[in-house]
Amino acid sequence: MSQNKFILIDGSSMLVTNYYGNLPKALLFEKDPEKKEKLFSQIMHNDEGQYTNAMYGMLRTILKIIDEQKPTHMMFAFDMTRDTFRREKYADYKGNRGETPEPLKEQFENMEKLLEDMGFQVMYDMKYEADDIVGSVVSKFEKEIPSYIITKDHDYLQLVSDYTRVWLIQTKQETADELQAKYSTEYGWNSKMVKIPDKAFEVTPPLCLSEYGVKPCQIPDLKGIQGDSSDNIPGVKGVSSAAMPLLAEYGTVEGIYEAIDSCDGDAKKLKELAAYWKEKLGISRSPMKALNEYRDMAFLSKDLAMIRRDYDFQKELDDFKININVDKAKEQFEKYGFKSLMEKINA
Questions:
Q1: Same-domain status, 225 and 131
Q2: How far apart are CA 221 and CA 305, in angstroms?
Q3: 320 and 300 in a common domain
Q4: From which residue to which does any coiled coil extend (predicted)?
Q5: Strands 6-10 and 73-77
Q6: Cβ–Cβ < 8 Å for 162, 183
Q7: Are 28 and 146 members of one domain?
Q8: Which residues contact 1 (CB under 8 A, 6 or more apart)?
Q9: pLDDT tens-digit profile of 146-198?
Q10: Number of H helices, E strands in the chain
């Protein structure tokens, strides 16, 4: 078992990161939509005019991960649409995000097909998001094989367990190095003994609590109170700083409201509870009014942040074994002009 390794990749996260990371600077900083479109021709593309900057960067990353990590199993999950079940629950979910640029949208479809042609398991769904798919797959197999999730998305931290690690990608390598150095002595991490992907910080259950202030299972509760601006999850307004001490005391959003409800609306008891929060939990500004006012939003926000693990997929662990079709890979690399990657596929 110890020789096997399952790497699950948030394909959407990795492709988007490589798209913006490999854009010409003039395009990256241009704000005007019309001027942006005129600069699209500067984006890396093949002889047929198909955009390739994100695909090339992502493939280079994948091949390096395979070479260094020697995984036996691998899969990719992609988002297909923002109109998932979460938007049915909350119409403004991810409503703050702009349209996906055409050069990136095109590469999503081409990247998914390329990976499938290479022989990888590529999964996506109209109702579920990539993190739900990864959550469902890893929950089914994590006790059979050590599992590692690669993503930039903090939502995935709730999947961290004794069997599953999240390799959380940081914006800069220096940040990842600082985080690893911060915990290396306490948790015995050594870069010479454990090689992890570039810019990644390996999150374990104790590291999640130490660095992010909550246990993995409490990530949805934290977002239930604090919200998440990247996904337009509202949370409870004005209670952000009180979230961690409240969760440390009560464990869950439900536990917090049970404490409030145990006061039965009695003003004296509520005042005593607020005083306890101030004296024992260090919450200087009482969040009581906001918690009561936005109760429904707290539960909705937690639900929106909860990764589902019930995505129905008909695959067994062996289906995820890495078995690259070298001929098809070379054919695709030739098509997109990835000649520098040819020799890496032979390794």
A1: no
A2: 8
A3: no
A4: none
A5: parallel
A6: no
A7: yes
A8: 144, 145, 146
A9: 999 999 999 999 999 999 999 999 999 999 999 988 988 776 666 656 689 99
A10: 17, 6
